[in-house]
Amino acid sequence: MSLFRIHLAIACLLAGVPAFAQAPRYTLEKLADGVHAVIYNPELETEGNTLIVVNDRDVVVVDSNAGITTAKMTIAEIRTLTPKPVAFVVNTHWHDDHVMGNQAYADAYPGVQFIAHPLTRQDIVDHAFANNAFVIDVLASDIKRIAGYLETGSGRDGKPFTPDTRARAQIAHDKRVEMLADRKVMRAVPPTIDVAESMTLQRGAREIQIRFLGRGNTRGDLVVHLPKERIVATGDLVVAPTPYATNAYVREWVGTLDKLMAIPAATILPGHGPVMRDWSYARQVKSALEQTLAAVAAAKKEGLTLQQTTERVQLPEVRDSFMKGVETRRAGYEAFFRTSLIRNAWEELDAATMRADEGAVTTKVAEGVYARLRKDPTADPVDANVVIIVNEKDVVLVDSNVTLASTRATVRAIRELTDKPVRYIVNTHWHDDHVLGNQVYKEAFPQAELVSHPLTRDDIEVRAYGGNADYTKQLEEILPKRRLERDDPKTPAERRASLNTRIPEFEALLIDLKNMKPTLPEVTVADEMTLNRAGREIRIVFLGRGNTRGDLVVHLPKERIVITGDHVVAPIPWATEVYPAEWVATLDKLAALPADTIIPGHGPVMRDQQHLRKVQSLVRQVMADVKAARGAGLTLEQATEKIQLSEVRDQMTGGDARKVLLFEEAFRKSLIKRVWQEQADRTLP
Question: What's the pTM value of the predicted model, to 2 decimals?
């Protein structure tokens, strides 16, 4: 239960619910021999259900409640069932109402192990436990506010309490007092066992499967399946009477529900709500997700804002199917589900992601090898090619993207190709457009490991992420000026059209920069590393400095493919920090690899070495020209003016003004400066 849900629980209680003053707080229901469920009244409070599985020698529990008090109530029920110790507690996801009781189990059963998805463990630490001090302050404020209502005898709407509304206010007050007392003595008890995909507990004759079927309600939802008993505990993938969507991955949730409903089950324990005997309610949830996605996509296509879309997408039939005439469920449906679902669907269908998707194409290079290529490799913001290597059991990726949005588009492309897990992600070098999407990869594929040269790892930390603050400031200063220029009637139509395209892209980049988390490689390769993936050999090799000081290339010997990073870039090479003499030598080593296909860091797939050799020849030419200029006593500025490379510039740019600027700044001037420094016996940074 998030802080948002604490507030909403109060709102629902004070707004009115079906008469429950005499209703029990929870019931203990037998599901099968040795299997029971503690089911909290969802009309009364936001408190998760708990599954209790009594085995030959121990007990396994699924979810631990919202606090110490309710967890102790569940433990008391367990002790009426059996004296056996609780050996494992599964936290299906990170929400407070499923994990904050961990402490009570740790105290009652020393040695108990807590199981969760690794991302759930991270979220429990970073969100559930980390917010405790803030939640304490909020609860204290809520208690004071509700006590004021009780003292005056009227609610926040100013209307006098009826006996029923006073009873509800008292319940809301008492629940907050209970939670505050728990929070003041609460300590962090995070999971101790990670389950990224699946784990089976064999407890005597009983088999307990713990599975990650995919993201849905959160990014780390686990489900628990008892095959023999045909029982499934879903966590908050399924919640009744109205679902929760505050942290949802809407499109993935649809697929995860399909996998969930494929499990042969006769008894379903949802995260909240009553026991179910078939998948009909889960199908209802899936239908609501699909209808919402379709409606949001249609609204976005019309150009509606998020606020306008939220107002438009009401779906009364969906609402009525969950509310079932119980008007007091409306507040929960609106806040927990409808508006949250629309917001999440909106973000997933974000225009920046859609633009990134439209700006790239996935091309099959060989069996199981795909290149995600930019349609215009020089378009702003410049973005990298990504290579997707689908092996027998897993996937290896080469490079990420420059924005979170474009990397999300790449993730979608990967998932369209395969359901296999991504195991390794290679960052060929440190440039932003090859690494800033690492965060999205790790969120999408938490089991994957990032690989780079050790110097690249340092540069990613210091230069790629370290420069974000300056870049953010620059964008914040530039964007208002560009918007004014776009809206100025005097701006030429061609320039306005360009700004209309570029401004949204840089607005999306600014949002990404503000939300970006440094995500560094965990594995470093100083010389060579070979991955043998069930018949496919993948060599990750450092051939020497060239485009940067830590360039890796990826070679597939059997397929005769080499993935070069920015050693090779088309149509315009990069030279902002090259090591010219070493680059020439490294390109020789690269050309010597047995390969018929070159996938460059930018630009189209190449079936010969023509462009590689052209770049190498050009670097040699500039080295000779600079040497001659130095011999003639020219300064760097004079040499730069003299060495124009006009013929090559025209070939590579076609006279396009934007490409000419890129050629001048990213290649010609940079290369001349680096060659000059190298020939002056200066140590190149």
Answer: 0.56
